[in-house]
Amino acid sequence: MTTLQAMNEAQIRAALLEILENVAPEADFDELSAGVDVREALDIDSFDFLNVLIALNEQTGVEIPEADYGRLISIDDIVNYVWAKMN
Amino acid sequence: MSEFVMPSLGTDMEAGTLYEWFVKPGDAVQRGDVIASVETAKGVIDIEIFEDGRIDQLLVEPGTEVPVGTPIAVVVGAEPVAAAAVPVPVPAAAEAHPMDQKALVRPSKPEPAHNGKRVRVSPVARKLAEELGVDLSQIVGTGPNGAISRADVEEFQRRGAAAPRVEETAPPSRVEQQPVVEKPAEQPTKAAAQKGSTEFQAAMRRAIAAAMARSNREIPHYYLETRLDMGRPLAWLEAENQKRPIRDRILPVVLLIKATAKALVDVPDLNGYWVDDALRPSEAIHIGFAIALRQGGLVTPAIHHADLKSLEELMAAMSDLIMRTRAGRLRSSELTDATITLTNLGDMGVEKVYGVIYPPQVALVGFGKVMEQPWAVNGLLGVRPVLTVTLAGDHRASDGRRGGQFLDVLAKHLQEPDKL
Q: In chain B, what residues touch A50 (CB-CB under 8 Å)?
């Protein structure tokens, strides 16, 4: 995890969207309004959610503890959380 | 010498299409080897052999659909006596059900035909045609006996599947003036891919319908439910996961799988099959884990020997099973071996699940969502994470008392998560 390069917010968002697209290929991300519960909107179960966080961890190096899951509702929440942890 | 037959991959399967052979005559095989793959309503399934020996003959060509029970290969046993002693679970399960046997005499689904004649299609060609949405009956094969090859499908697609066949007679100059453009072909391809997926969906729905209708017809279900205080197991798991890197985290459902398996060790009457008017309990505990597919439908492959696996091993087994179920790559034993089914709708807002038993199994355990609820202990009211577990039992095989014992020990095991 030492080779990770610093990412800006836009890059984190792009990485997250790509990961989510792999999980829910049929989803229309343009339709996702800001603040919407992304797990509910994309029908992401706890197994998929864990895989999303693992993939995000691989790209950003940020480990999200289970206790913080409750703060990760929308795409913005996740991006902001990871961004804050990286800095 | 023995015959290897098209296995029944569930009570709902009547026939399967041989997709690919992984062995050829002369090859040595061992019990558990994957020797072929078969296309079913549940995707392409890898078929395992249940004896040691050598492949003598392959009897069925790839692309051929045959009823369950049809010999598809001849195997020469290394030690015929030993081979005969090995139980062959798949055909045994099929034999046990006269209903399924009846299905054997049903004619298999006809292939796309020219003038009512069967047409041979190579599996690669069939797959490609499905992907491209090409109607196989529109293609004239150039292979042996008019078999349709990959090249035939590609040629047909290149000419433009959507275009009427009349165009073949159009002057060549016109064709040259209008070079093949990618775009027009894209539309029908996409629509057809959706059609292929719709047909797969329909086949899966029929398979589920057959199994569930049979269950409701034959199995006198009884239902029990109880509420579990998940405070202790969830707190234990959270502390445990905090010590682990994110890759090694364990999901709460894994605790439920293990507690169910351990409870079945204590109350074995719920684990096994109802065959020939008698309960045949199974010593091995293979938990059929219900996995919903994104596009709809449901598959319940088995997690083998769940009682003997650690939580880490169960998490790994479950992840692997979910991934392969979605990719449509399961092994035959995973589809046939389950001795009980576990369904977990905890990710939805569902509070409790009343399951329908998957015959010939005799029980189904259902878990709902963990919800904060009022909970009284020692005369004091508190708020706890509460999970409702239900048991659907086959009344021919067990009674409410046994079922109650099972739920009781399941709850006790969950309260000792460190021992799971």
A: 246, 249, 251
